[in-house]
Amino acid sequence: MRQKIMFFIWLCIGGLICCSLAENQSDSDGDKIERFFEKKDVTIAVMDSGLGGLSIMADAMERMRETKIFASVHFLFFNALFSNESGYNSLHNREEKILVFNSALNSLEVQYKPDLILIGCNTLSALYKDTPFSRQTRIPVKGIIETGVALIAENLKACPDAKVILFGTQTTVDERIFKKELTKKGFLKERILSHACPDLVPYIEKGYDSDETEMLIYAYADEALQQMGKQRSAVYVSLNCTHYGYSLGLWKKVFRNLGMEPLDFLNPNLRMNDFLFNTPRRKLRGSQISADVVSMVSIDKQRIGSIGRWLKALSPQTAAALENYTYIENLFEWKKFVTQTR
Known about the structure:
The chain has 342 residues and is of the alpha/beta class. The strands form two sheets. A six-stranded parallel beta sheet has the order 4-3-1-2-9-10, with helices on both faces. It has a four-stranded parallel beta sheet with strand order 6-5-7-8, sandwiched between helices. It has helices spanning 2-26, 29-38, 54-67, 94-112, 122-128, 132-136, 144-158, 170-175, 177-184, 200-206, 211-228, 248-257, 274-277, 301-314, 316-323, and strands at 41-48, 72-79, 116-119, 141-143, 163-168, 192-196, 235-239, 264-266, 288-295, 326-327. α3 (54-67) links the parallel β1 and β2.
């Protein structure tokens, strides 16, 4: 009798496991997105390790205001930067980066219950698939790298003789994910050049159009062109850090001053949201749009003034949300995941 009971228990457990596995396997990214569009009131979270992703939120807000596909949309910008003295690119190893980012994702899900997460950060997008969060969440998550790869591939295909210079953070370059994904699509490695731009992000945040930012961009662009040698006739410049798009005018000016006119400057920031609007959806009479910015690091007036000035031209509501951001000291846990040697 006891054996029959134990067998029945194990049968039930096995059935539950099978059902769970089947549910997870059928719960594809497409399924998650379709469930998202079935809702009428949604929260869309945009994550970045800094303020670059605010440009993505600003674009999404204004396009959502025009399309009116939801009765209400609350946009939340979740700053996943954990310290003004240290960012993901300065952590000791990849494991630490993943653990800290995973902690931020868990906090976002538990505290704010978003219906969609947009990772508006190349560094974090490169790490996302290796987070425990990615394997268990039922929230649809989109990273900007997917958009960046598609944009580069589209242009390299259009001009078979062209090369692309990828400018990004150290982590983005070290991960080599763009080169991996583009070679999978059949593009030769020789056509894909990467160049890291350490320290550029804080300069852009303090003054996206300042002389100091221009000088730093000039130095990185010059280094990249020196590495290319003399064959510079057909080149795309890809800006693979969401912050870099704020300074697009400076990038264009710098390359002109270096005596080179790229085929185009590829900025995936404002294309990341296309998937939300490409497919015809219902259109309601009105749509309430709200926005908040939360951060566990303080954002000084200089950064708010610089980035806010850029945002105001696109979305005054996003600029206002940044100016009135909410500081939460313990937004997510990070210290226990980091080796404290500094």
